[in-house]
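Problem statement: downstream parser choked on a complex file, so we are re-checking the raw output for the zinc ion run. The parser issue turned out to be on our end (a line-ending mismatch), but while we're here, posting the original submission so the record is complete.
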Amino acid sequence: MDNLIKKAAKELAKSKRVVALTGAGVSVESGIPPFRGKGGLWEKIDPMEFAHIDSFMRDPAKVWNILIREMKDIVDRARPNDAHKGLARLEELGILNMVITQNVDGLHQMAGNTDVIEFHGNFAWQKCLDCSKKTETFKISLDEIPPKCACGGILRPDCVFFGEMIPAEHLLRSRKAAYECEIMLVIGTSAVVQPAAYIPVAAKESGARIIEINPESTPLTGSISDYIIKGNAGEVMKAIVSEVEILL
Ligand code: NAD
Ligand code: ZN
C-alpha cells in the first residue's frame, strides 16, 4: 500500500486538474454510516420503503421517525475527518479543482473545499412542502413529528429522494469536469448508483488517471481504476497529502 500511496502522490503533485468523486465511505470515519455494505443502513431498513419520495408523501411522520430523525442526530454532530481535510488541503495547494459528492452531510464545505457539487442536495436545510421556505436542520425541534414550518406546512430535507431528479446543471457541470480532469480521485463510493457511477467512466474515456480509495472492491476496481488503494479514506488521504507536501 505504501508504494501505491507514493505513486499516487507523485501523479497528484504534478497535476493542477484533479477532481474528486466521493460517496458515503468518505464520511464513515466521521461517524456517519454508509447505506450499502457492512454496517450500512440498508441492512436495517428497506430504502424503497423509507427513502423514496412516494413513501415520504404518503406518510411523512413514518419517514421522519425511522430515517430522518436518526440522520439528523448523526449529521448534526459530525465533523470533517482526515479525508475531507486532505481534499481541502489539495485545493489549497492548487491541485484539486472540484469535489463531486453523493453525500448530503456538508462535510466537504466544512473542511474548506469551495467548489462542491452535491448530487443529492444537502441535509443542512429543510424545505416547507407548502411555501418552500428553507430552515436550517439544526434549528428544527423534533418535539412534533413531522416538524412543521411557521406556515403550518410539513418540512422535508432539501435532499434528492429516490424517485426524484438530480438537478440537470449538476449533471452537466460534473460531466464537463470529468472530461477535463487529468486525475480523478474516487473515494468511498460503491460506484453502483447512477449517474455518479458514470462519472469516473467519463473521466477515463477522456484520458484521466483514476485513483480509487476504498477498503472493498467495487465495479470500477480492476476495470477502469489505475490504482486501487485498499484502505480507509481518512488514513489513506492523510498519507497521500503528506507525500504530496514532501514532493512540492
Ligand atoms: P454506499 O453506501 O453505496 O457505499 C459506501 C462505500 O464506501 C462502499 O463502497 C464501502 O466499501 C466504502 N467505505 C466504507 N467505509 C469506508 C472508509 N472508511 N473509507 C473509504 N471507503 C469506505 O455509498 P454511495 O455509493 O455513496 O451511495 C449511497 C447514497 O447514500 C449516496 O448517494 C448518498 O446520497 C447517501 N448517503 C449519504 C451519506 C452522507 O451524506 N454521509 C451517508 C449515507 C448515505
Ligand atoms: Zn411554509
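For whoever reads this later: Residues 128, 130-131, 133, 149, 151, 153 surround zinc ion (ligand 2) (CB under 6 Å).
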